[in-house]
Amino acid sequence: MLCCDKEEAMSLKVNAKIVIVGCGISGIAAAHRLVKAGFHHVRIVEATARSGGRIKTGSLGDNIIEIGANWIHGPSEENPVFCLARQYGLLDPEALTPENQAMDIGGHPPWVPNVFTSSGRKLNIEDVAPAVEMFAELLEQSSEFQSQGGEPYASMGDFIRSEVRRQAAEKWKDVDAAAISTRLHVVSNLLKVECCVNGSHSMDDVGLGAFGLYKTLPGLDCTFPGGYEGLIKNLMSELPGGLVTYNQPVQCVHWSNTEKRENPVEIECEAGERITADHVIITVPLGYLKKHHSTLFRPPLPLHKLHSVQRLGFGTNNKIFVEFDSPWWDADCEVIYYLWEDEDAMVDQVPDIQRSWIKKLFGFTVLKPTERYGHILCGWIAGHESEYMETLSEQEVMQGVTQLIRRFTGNPTITPRRILRSQWFHDPWTCGSYTYPGRGCSLQDLENMMEPLPTKTSQAQPLQVLFAGEATHPCYYSTVHGALLSGWREADRLISHYSSISPSELPRSKL
Ligand code: 6YU
């Protein structure tokens, strides 16, 4: 009779070979937890020469800028990114105050705007406020469709446009045509903002029912004064040296859906190395999975998982940092919006991308405090227009941005000192920015994403392939904390597997 005493179980755990594909925050989090729990054979295989993935801090002149993730969304006790950043001493004192943590407003209070139109006018806040308020209420209402289980409109875009039309006819019936036209252009601009928030091409691509799956945490969004990568550096310094193999893209994960029990997983690297393992944790971005799933898994992903990979959205949101010698915006200004008066009302897509891609850039946020950053604006652009922008030279992007600012301010002398833009769509290991719930998506899709292989119904060795990464979190997808929690979740899955293992489940090679 077989027996598995405590000592044997411990040695099984210690000797289990676990490979993590990807050294972003989710892969690092998984490795951290596994190493702490006593697993000795944990290895990360990373395609690029660096750790951090979509957490990427760069510089513009002497200033630190975030090319990827920017904020801790909801920095409060429930947010593990906040807790780690606090523990490592990476945050400004304001971010640590109880008042900051208690503020439950879904991110940040409305930013102080400067609003310009394409005819060079600067608008007053009263001109735009009614549309801004209506839009904010609609976003709030849209979350309710998730619990109601019904979707009366085809998409978020359809819902917002239809409701604005309906409410405007009722509430703005005594407002003059020019003012209404301005308000509808504000709606266009806010739809473009939402495309950036969601990382979608258009709000017509975002599912209405699933929009409410995303949960916010309390806390006023904050940044890392020394750069988001400080978090990565601290976590990496606590892992054993040599745990990560860099510049080692994984080409194919061979797993078994039969009863083969010995070394069930083999990880084939592009350079030819083949690594055998008991378990592999896949943390590659959803964009990469969408493009490469057919070659990345042998046998291929089961159909229900593949359909979720396809249904979930993964779009592009890029930043264009622009530095100036002196500011041309108001001293208290936190965000600059551009309204195109020649655009149809309530559009978030540009018809002629090559000629007019810049129309998709909703505007700029102002990097604050000025003493830290100088005079830097961060432009935001999502969708196919953003993907096209990536193909232009830096010079061409600078030209586009300069013309835009000169036209909208009516000041032909404004000249940027330098620019830097991100190119997340053409990053071969990311293929976009982050996940959003596409039309027809539900919680089931995110659950399918995180389901390990082989699935429960199979007789084969369990937990061969596990899935982490932001796209696998049921309510914090698209965020750093969602990614981190997903890494811990998959590590815990293995930890509890080895603590509950019974003799009949042991691989023959281990008996
Ligand atoms: C957040 C924020 N933020 C802006 C921009 C971006 C993102 N996010 P990784 O990709 O990090 O790691 C995978 C690794 O795998 C990587 O190193 C690859 O090289 C490697 N790899 C790939 N293929 C491989 C292969 N074949 N072999 C080996 N290795 C391979 N999140 O919290 N705050 O401010 C922003 C922002 C421009 C691009 C962000 C933000 C998203 C995070 O960056 C992201 O989720 C995590 O870093 C992902 O970590 P990971 O480990 O999963 O993958 C209602 C509603 C709306 C819902 N949305 C709300 C808004 C929230 C999003 N906000 C974003 C805003 C900004 C500005």
What does this structure look like?
The chain has 511 residues and is an alpha/beta fold. The chain folds into two domains: 2-53 and 230-313 and 435-510, FAD/NAD(P)-binding domain, CATH 3.50.50.60; 108-215 and 317-421, Alpha-Beta Complex (Polyamine Oxidase, Chain A, domain 2), CATH 3.90.660.10. It is built from 19 helices and 20 strands. The strands form five sheets. It has a seven-stranded mixed sheet with strand order 6-5-15-16-17-14-18, sandwiched between helices. Strands 7-2-1-11-20 form a five-stranded parallel sheet, with helices on one face. α6 (125-142) packs across α9 and α8 packs antiparallel against α9 (177-198). The chain starts with 5 loop residues before the first helix and ends in a 12-residue tail after the last helix.
Order of strands in the sheet with most strands: 6-5-15-16-17-14-18
Distance between the termini: 11 Å
Shape: globular
Q: Looking at CATH, which topology of the largest domain would you report?
A: Polyamine Oxidase, Chain A, domain 2
Uncertain segments are: none
**Number of DSSP helical runs:** 19
Strand content: 15-25%
Largest sheet: 7 strands, mixed
| CATH class categorisation of the largest domain | Alpha Beta
Bound molecules: FAD-MDL72527 adduct
Overall pLDDT score: 94
- The CATH architecture of the largest domain can be given as Alpha-Beta Complex
What structural class do the secondary elements suggest?
Answer: alpha/beta
The structural domain count equals 2
Number of E strands: 20
Calculate Rg over CA atoms. Answer: 24 Å
Percent range of helical residues: 25-40%
